[in-house]
Batch of 2 targets.
Target 1
Amino acid sequence: MKIGVVTFPGSLDDGDAARAARIAGAQAVRLWHADPDLHGVDAVVLPGGFSYGDALRCGAIARFAPIMETIKKAAADGLPVLGICNGFQILCEAHLLPGALTRNQHLHFRNRDQWLRFDNVASAWTGSFVEGQEILIPVKNGEGCFVADADTLDQLEANGQIVARYINGNPNGSMRDIAAIRNEAGNVVGIMPHPEHAVEALTGPSLDGLGFFASVLQYLVAPASPAPAQEAQVRETVTIPEPLIRPTIPVEPDPALAPPAWPEIPARVPAQADDAEPVEADDEADSDPAAEIDEPAVAAAEQRRDSSEH
């Protein structure tokens, strides 16, 4: 299965999303915003970042990218699409999802590990979770406050389109603690926190984010309406892998990268007068603190030094 990850000017987490897709077992395909061709991918991720520098509004310019026209048409035909952070903003600006993402109510950028609780898992990207399940993934945004009019919020509630809510604190003031929503068909999901940053034990607070990418693989290989036995068989074929452990590989040191061998610095010795006779090493003089000093030679050297300074 191929999961495409779109790169816009200013995208930040496209590489992380592609890596998460690969860890889940998919082939990650990098897609360019100016190329309308989806290159045969089975699902698409709109990653986090600051597309077009968040000019006008977050995602307001990216929605007009040539690839977005193709994605809108494909999403209408059932293509699974996941928008993460800035990708969520783009989906709202493109009217693939209702509502909008605005400036955090406290007017500060918020970056922390955030707990979520699933309200509804009936989507292409959340099928491996269960309702009521709590997960921990990072959140990092300055414009992550989800807003909508009261009628839209009530409709989202009634249709089961609220995928997840913030718990143990709302990081941005989103209405009704909304962290993620989906469209009515369930193939388009927008989430403000970052599941792609919680797929490895080494770098994430948990492995909870991997379930989003494993879920879409299950969704893609499953029949449209699988029987319980068929669904169980499908879930056995696509499982969430164990945490990726990087093996320790012995590496021979490269001589070209070795630091230079610094030469030894000789001990500093007092300067001698030009016409002074060299002093030969004398074992007795070295051992006798009261060894005689050539005072006339020293006086001559000091005189020459004073005359050169003036």
Target 2
Amino acid sequence: MARASQTQTDQSVAGVKVAAFLIILIAVAIVVWNALADRYAPSSSRSTFSAQVIQIAPRVSGRAVDVLVQDNQLVQPGDPLFQIDAEPYELAVKTARARLQETVQGINASTSQIEAAQAQVAQARVNVEKAEADADRMTRLVDRGVMAQVKGDDAQRALDAAKAALEAAESQAEAARRQLGDVDNSPQIDAAQIALENAEYDLASTTVTAPSFGAISNLHFAVGQFVSAGTPVVTFIDGEDIWISAEFRENQLGNIKPGAPVSVTFDAVPGQIFEARVGSIGWGISAGPRQANGLPVSAAPTEWFEPARRIPVRIDIDGLPLAQEYPVRLGGKVDVLVQTQGSGWVVSVASALQRLRSKLSYLY
């Protein structure tokens, strides 16, 4: 009886030892895995889908006569957003044109050629302004690798063509003035021409258009509202300037390099893996106030272990397909995994775990 009881006790002790050994082994394995993953397959679930948010303001003041978009609507480049009452600016163009004609008639000159040439110059300058904005936007996208180089070249060629057209229009205007004889020596005519060009530019600015593909958000703007020049009235989310803001612990940054491939999952799109790459690594974060009243601040610890500092890392991703085909929204939660040039099996295991987490997004 005593011998049987002793046998059971020995078996229980052996079972406890085995369980303790397995627990210790699992704990060591977890610690080792986390250390390897942080170095060779760093990941972060503290990531956010980000984009440029632009406050669109009109260039001229006036009463809104038409709002052509709705809240949360997707728009294409050049789509009209709202229209400002153009009647005062049409009258200003007529007035400027009449003053130019009156000035030229005062020196026995015809105004028809000058009016046509100045209208072409004004339109050409509007085209150059738009082409410069498109080329600048496309250059940023090409530099980040979001768009192909050929797109940037096309935008640059369009800008060069617009500038050439402006030069041609100015040359035509200059030729028209020379044909009128003594126009070059008339400061009154020069001033009238500039006034007409400004009036036509203001008239063209009464229609406000979308600068790129994107979405209208938080729209609180209605017909009849008076808006002032430079006052933001429409919030625009740029669908072509999209990235992911990921936060990594400092000890995860050792092997993260710009250009490294990144696999990305979104809670909004469970079960799907998207490809991206590291754009840049932040150079600093705010660590809180360092002085007060001219004296250094010594912050007293409030936790047993000080939490790790996290550094922002920009992840570049082709945002157009995401915005057009998937329900990904600005500020949405993202899980990122950087595939460094370290151990291949670590990256493979980390990728499998990321795919599993993505599947679990169906549940919560």
